[in-house]
Amino acid sequence: MNAVRNFFHSIRVRLGKLPRWAQLVLWGLVVLLVYLLPIINPPFLTTTGSDFGAVLFSCAMYSLVAIGLNIVIGYAGLLDLGYIGFFAIGAYTVGMLGSAHATLPLILLVPAAIVVTMISGVLLGAPTLRVRGDYLAIVTLGFGEIVRLVLVNSGWTNGSRGISNIPTPPSIELFDIPHISWQGLTAFVDLETTTTFLKFSVTDSVPYYWLTLTLVFIVLFLDWLMQNSRVGRAWEATREDEDAAELMGVPTFRFKLLAFATGAAIGGLSGAMFATKQQFINPENFTIIYSVLFVAMVVVGGQGNRWGVVFAAVLLTWAPEKFRFLADGRFFLFGILLMALAIFRPQGLIPPKRTVRARKAEEEETEILEEGHAHA
Amino acid sequence: MDLLINHFWELTITGLAIGAVYALVALGYTMVYGVLRLINFAHSEVFMWGSFAAVWALMAVGAGKASGLGLAGYLVIGFVAAMTVSALIAMLLERVAYRPLRKRNSPPLIALISAIGASFALSELMGLRDKPLGWFNLENLRDYLGRPRENLPLPLQIQTKAVFPVFNYDVTNIDLIVLLSAIVMMVILDQFIRRSRLGRGIRAVAMDPEAAALMGINRDRVIRLTFLIGGIMAGAAAMMYLLKIGVTRYNAGFILGVKAFTAAVLGGIGNIRGALLGGFVLGVAENYGSALFGSQWKDVVAFLLLVVILLFRPTGLLGESLGKARA
Amino acid sequence: MPDTTPGALGSHDEAHDGAHDGSRSARREDIVTNPDTSVDISVEEVTDLPPGKMLEVDDVTLRFGGVTALDGVSFHINTGEILGLIGPNGAGKTTCFNVMTGVYQPTSGGVRFMGEPLGRRKKFEITKLGIARTFQNIRLFHNMTALENILVGADAHHSTGMASALLRLPKHRREEAEGMDRAHELLKFMGLERRADELARNLPYGDQRRLEIARALATNPKLLCLDEPAAGFNPAEKVRLMELIQTIREQGYTVLLIEHDMRLVMGVTDRIVVLEFGKKIAEGLPAEIRDNPAVIAAYLGVDESAS
C-alpha cells in the first residue's frame, strides 16, 4: 500500500512541476473523460451484466452520499449510522411534492429536498448531539429505522406501495451521441445505441449520470471551501479533542450540529437524485443495511479524505456490478472489510491529507537540510 | 386507550415475557460495556445464531407437537443447543473482532466500526446459508435450511393453554415457561457474579481495570468469561424468543439487538441488575405503546424511548457501571 | 529584547553543523529555531486594560459527592501581573483552573472576571471573554498541524460561518489573513516557525508544550492560565520557559501560573497563592511565601524531584 501511495505522490509532485495552464488542460481532459465514460465504454471498466450508464449513475449518487457522510464522520468525528434516513427523506420529499401530494417541477423539488433534510438533520441533531459518541451511533441507527417504519406504516406516504410517477428533470433534446462498443481492444462506433443530449428517460441513464456527476463536482468544491475555513478547522478540532476545542473558544455543539445538518442536506440531495432517476420509490429502497454500506465507503476511503471516500464509493458500487458473483455476498464482504480495516488499517485505504501535509513538511525540511549541506 | 385499559393485564404479562428476552440479551451488552467500555454491536447476531441452532437441533431430533415430559426434553435440547452455539459465536467474536483492537488500544469508534462489520458479516453469512449447498452438492439439505432470506419456523409445537388467571387475563403455559426460565437464568447469574471468585473478578475489572491487574486478576480471562456469559444468556434468550414468536430469520437480531441495547441503557449501561430491570420495563412499555398507537408503531415506541432516556437520564434508571452498582 | 534561550535547545546553526559533519540523515530534532521574543505579540484589547483586579475568585467551594475539592478559596489576580498558584500534588490547583474556565460549576461561591460574574457561562464563552489556558497533560489537536492548532485558537474571536466560508465573503478573507498573520507571529515568537506544517503529534515534547501556549495566546486572552507548563522539562529548560513567560507578561498579558516546583515560581511571579487540600493556606509576595511556616510545613516531605 505504501508503494501505491508513493506512486500517487510522485505523480502529484511531477504534475505540480508542470506550468499552470498545462495542469488546467490536464484536469479538463480528465474531467471530460469521466463525463464520457458511458459513451466510451472502456473495455475493462464497462459492466456486461448491467447497464453501464446506470452503474455509473449509482457510482455518482453514492459518491454524493460518501462526500456528505464524510463531513459527519470524517471531519466532525460523529459516527452516524442512520444516514439512509436522510437519503430516504430527500427521496420522499421529491416523491411527495412531485407526485403524491403535489406536482411541483424538479427544479423546485431538489432545493425542497435539501431544505427538508437539513431541517430534519437539525431536529435529530439538536437533542442527540449532546450524548456520548458511541451512544450517538445507536441513536442514529434507531433514527434510520424509524424513518423506514414511518414510511411503511403511514398512509400519507402511501405505505409499502411507495410512490410512482416521480417527475424527471426537463429534457432538451439537441442531438444524439452514438456509443462506442468494443470487440477485444478494437473500438467501433455503435450507431444503434445512442444517447440523446439531453433527454431524461427511463431507458437511458446517461443524462442522469451527467447531472449527478455535475452535482458531485459542485459539492466537492463546496466541501473544499468549507474544509479550508474556520468551519473545517472547528470540525477537525472538535473531532480531535472536544473539551480542548471548547476551551479554545470553539462552540463545539453548534459546529457538530452544522456538520450534521450539512451532511444531512447532501444525503437529501442524493436521495432526490435517486428518486428522480428511479421515478418510483418504496420503503424497501431505504433499509438500514445501506447505512452500513455508506459507513463502509467512508471508512474504506479514509475518513476525512474527500477523494478517498469518492474512490471508495465508486469502488464499492462498481465492483459488485462488474463481478456479479460478488453481488449476493456483497454485504457480507463489506462486513468483513469493515472489520479488517478497523483491525489492520483504521485510517482507511487512502488516509486523509493530514499525512500528506506532514509529508510535505518533511520534504521541505529535507530540502533545507540538503541546502544547508550544500552551503557548508 | 380502551384497549390499554381492557387488556391491561394481558399487555403486562406478555410484555414481561418478551421483556425477559430483552433483559437476557441486554446482559451481553451491559457486561461487555462494563469491562471493555465497548458497545458490543454484534451481540445481536450472537442471539440470532443461537436461535437458528435451537431450530436446527429440534429439527434434527424430529420435534413436533409435544407436551409433558416430551416437551421438557425438547426444551432442554433447544436451550442447550442455542446456549452452546451462542456462547461459541460470542467467544469467536471476542477473539476475531475485538481482541486485536484491544491489543493496540484502538479508539472506541474504531472498535465500534469493527463490531458493526462483524455484525453484518455474521448476519449476512446466515442470509447466504444456501450458497454452499450448490458448491458441495448438498441439495438434499435445502429443506432443512429453509429459504435463506425468509422466516425459519420452530418445529416444536406447543398447545397454548391457560395456566392460571391474573385478574382478567389467563397466563399461558408459554408465558410461564419463558418467564420461569428467565428467572432461573437471572438468579444463577446474579449469584455467580456476587459469590464466585470469577464473578468478583468481573466486577473488579469493571470497577478499575488497572487496579484489578495489580491485584493479579487476569483481565483477558475475565473478558473471555464475560463474552461467554453474555453468549449463554443470549442463547437462552434465543430459545425463549422462539417459544414466544415461533420463527427466526437471518436479520432477526437487528431490531431485537437495538431493543436489548435500549434496555441496557434504560437500566444504566454496565449495571447488571439495571439491564434486567430495563428489559422488563421496555417489554411492558412497548406493549402499552402498541395498545395506544397501534402495533405497527411498537418498534418506533421502543426507539423513541431510547432517545428520550439518552437525553434526559443517560445514566439510566439504576445508574451506570458494573463496579459501582451493587451487582 | 535579547535572545533569552541560547545554546541547549539547539540553534539553527547547530543543525547546519550537524549536516557539516557528514550526517546527511540529520535528525529532525536537530532543526530548532529559538523563540524570537522580539516579535510583538501584543494586542490592543489586552494591553490597554486599566489596572485593577482582573479576576476574583470569591469563596469558591466545589464538592464531588463527599469529596471537597475546593473549600472556600478566595484570591484575585491584578491586571498585568504573574500570579503563581502553587501547592503539593492534589491540592486543587487544576480544579481551581477548571472552575475558572467553566469546566466545573462551583458548588458555592463564584468567579468574577473584569467585574462580571462568570455565572453559568459555557466554556467557549469564557474563552471569548478572555481567559485561555493550557493543560497539564498536553491536549493539542494531534492530527492537525502546528499552524492549524494556532489558527483554531485565533478563530475564537472570529465569526466566519458556513455562508461566508462558502461564498468566500470579505469577512472570511479578512479573518483568514488576520489569523495567518497572528499564527505566524506566535510561531516565530515561540520559535516554532519551522514546525508550522508538522502534525502536532510529531512535534518533540518541548515544542508541544510551547505550541499549547501559542494556541492559548492566539485567542487574545486577557488572562493566560498555564497549568504546569514546564512539567517534564529539565531544570535548564524550565528556567528558559520561565523567562519566556516573563516576556509574555512584558508584552502586556496577565498570567496565572500553576507550578508544582516552588523554587521555580519564586523567580518569575509577582505574587503567590498557596493551596493545600483544597484550602488557601497562604498568599503574598514570593519572599513572604518562602518564609511562611504553613507553606514550609505543607511542602515538607514533598519530594520535589517528583515534579
UniProtKB/TrEMBL annotation, chain A:
It comes from the Bacteria. GO terms for molecular function: branched-chain amino acid transmembrane transporter activity. Coiled coil: none annotated. The chain crosses the membrane at residues 21-40, 52-74, 81-100, 106-126, 208-226, 257-276, 288-319, 331-350. GO terms for cellular component: plasma membrane. It is found in: Cell membrane. It comes from Pedococcus cremeus. It is a multi-pass membrane protein. This is Amino acid/amide ABC transporter membrane protein 2, HAAT family. Keywords: Cell membrane, Membrane, Transmembrane, Transmembrane helix. InterPro entries: ABC_transp_permease, LivM-like. Pfam families: BPD_transp_2.
Automatic annotation (TrEMBL), chain B:
It is found in: Cell membrane. Coiled coil: none annotated. One of its GO terms (molecular function) is L-phenylalanine transmembrane transporter activity. One of its GO terms (biological process) is L-isoleucine import across plasma membrane. InterPro entries: ABC_transp_permease, BCAA_transport_permease. PANTHER family: BRANCHED-CHAIN AMINO ACID TRANSPORT SYSTEM PERMEASE PROTEIN LIVH, HIGH-AFFINITY BRANCHED-CHAIN AMINO ACID TRANSPORT SYSTEM PERMEASE PROTEIN LIVH. This is Amino acid/amide ABC transporter membrane protein 1, HAAT family. It comes from Pedococcus cremeus.
From TrEMBL, chain C:
PROSITE patterns: ABC_TRANSPORTER_2. The keyword Signal does not apply. GO terms for biological process: D-alanine transmembrane transport; L-alanine transport; L-isoleucine import across plasma membrane; L-valine import across plasma membrane. SMART domains: AAA. GO terms for molecular function: ATP binding; ATP hydrolysis activity; L-isoleucine transmembrane transporter activity; L-phenylalanine transmembrane transporter activity; L-valine transmembrane transporter activity. Residues 11-31 have a biased composition (Basic and acidic residues). It holds the Pfam family ABC_tran. Residues 55-302 form the ABC transporter domain. One of its GO terms (cellular component) is plasma membrane. Residues 1-37 are annotated as: Disordered. The keyword GTP-binding does not apply. Keywords: ATP-binding, Nucleotide-binding, Transport. InterPro entries: AAA+_ATPase, ABC_AA/LPS_Transport, ABC_transporter-like_ATP-bd, BCA_ABC_TP_C, P-loop_NTPase. PANTHER family: AMINO ACID ABC TRANSPORTER ATP-BINDING PROTEIN (PTHR45772:SF7), CONSERVED COMPONENT OF ABC TRANSPORTER FOR NATURAL AMINO ACIDS-RELATED (PTHR45772). This is Amino acid/amide ABC transporter ATP-binding protein 1, HAAT family. It comes from Pedococcus cremeus. The lineage of its organism: Bacteria, Bacillati, Actinomycetota, Actinomycetes, Micrococcales.
